[in-house]
């Protein structure tokens, strides 16, 4: 196992657009969901959107505790290294304009995520920015 540098963590985030978002202090069980996200390394902005109205489990979890973590992982090509990054911080509601560059990164790099161009069309979809407080990353040789 090897610790990733800050530059390598930013590379993992920018190159991938799917992760697992975990909400803190949600009750009896942890609440973790897959999400599409965008990361703009130049602006150090990580953005995502959450579906559902104010009565959804996601929004209730954020009201109780706005601090979350997101885990991202990848297998490099050729298949010789596994890399992962964990980012922690406060998830705050934002505007699409404020995080436009992060969503543009998502659109360029992720084939399987929903198209962010139409995300703003739904009244039940809200953009969020993860205000990064700390991150860590590791790599493991596969062979």
UniProtKB/TrEMBL annotation:
InterPro entries from the UniProt entry: Pyridox_Oxase-rel (IPR024747), Split_barrel_FMN-bd (IPR012349)
Pfam families for the chain: Pyridox_ox_2 (PF12900)
Protein name: Pyridoxamine 5'-phosphate oxidase-related FMN-binding
Organism: Halomicrobium mukohataei (strain ATCC 700874 / DSM 12286 / JCM 9738 / NCIMB 13541)
């Amino acid at each position: 196992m090897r610790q990733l540098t800050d530059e390598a963590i930013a590379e993992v985030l920018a190159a991938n657009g799917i992760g697992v978002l975990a909400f803190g202090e949600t009750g009896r069980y942890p609440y973790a969901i897959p999400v599409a996200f965008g990361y703009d390394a130049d602006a150090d902005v990580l953005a995502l959107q959450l579906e559902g109205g104010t009565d959804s489990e996601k929004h209730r979890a954020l009201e109780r505790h706005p601090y979350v973590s997101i885990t991202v992982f990848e297998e490099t090509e050729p298949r010789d290294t596994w890399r992962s990054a964990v980012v922690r911080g406060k998830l705050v509601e934002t505007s699409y304009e404020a995080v436009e560059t992060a969503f543009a990164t998502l659109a360029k790099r992720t084939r399987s995520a929903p198209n962010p161009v139409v995300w703003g069309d739904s009244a039940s979809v809200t953009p969020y920015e993860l205000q990064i407080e700390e991150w860590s990353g590791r790599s493991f040789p596969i062979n």
